[in-house]
TrEMBL record:
Keywords: Hydrolase, Membrane, Metalloprotease, Protease, Signal, Transmembrane, Transmembrane helix. Residues 1-25 form the signal peptide. It is a single-pass membrane protein. This is Metalloprotease. It comes from Streptomyces avidinii. It is found in: Membrane. GO terms for molecular function: metallopeptidase activity. Pfam families: Zn_peptidase (PF04228). The lineage of its organism: Bacteria, Bacillati, Actinomycetota, Actinomycetes, Kitasatosporales.
Amino acid sequence: MHRALLSLAISALFGAVGVASTASAQTGPPVDEESTTAYIEQTVQDADEYWTNWLAGQGLEVKHALFKIVQNGELYVSECSESGTPANAPSAFYCKADVERDGVAYEGVLVLPVDTMLKMRQGSLNNQPSEKAGDFTVATVVTHEMGHWVQDVLVSQKARQPANPGKDVELMADCFSGVWAGAKYNEGRLTAQDFDAAVDSRARFGDEEFTDPNHHGTSGERVTAWATGYFGLKKNPTVDPMNCIDAYWR
Ligand SMILES: [Zn+2]
């Protein structure tokens, strides 16, 4: 049903329509573990603010996600990984087991391996070089994982589930990541370079493992999902998380 619009959105994506036309020169701090940690923290805070506002506007009680940036030399043990997650774990993830820390109850924990994120900023995804990878690759991965937290809040308080509990969960998280990027664009804080990095990351993290329960969607499906968040649906062409729910939570 949304195919016509989505193919339009895709052509717009690859033409990079609707984004700021110039990227500023790279004159920031050195790309190292420390600046990567700071960048991740800033992204989590920014996205947390966006989603907290939206969830509160939906009448939901907001419990934040705990987040852990795993530093070099550390192993982070969670309910989801008893053997621990190192700083160079292949991917970030959201562990939906709730956590209580210092008397505060959190809705799940975001586990963000710093070395893997640093490599993305340096232009490498899954050990493959990418000319488009950069800071916003990291932001897209972080906000995808935060998308799982938003789903978790929706599931626990609205008692609803995605129709397809495998792939659609992943595509919805990509869509939520696109929503956040669209909100950045609306604030004039998204460059063409950021946009390209986000699309490139969704395309490169697609897979064709259709029978694997861990199948995240093909490259095309993942780019389309992100674009659904970023551009909206034909019936509602705005940055609105409801578009993600409409598309992936039938
Ligand atoms: Zn995911």
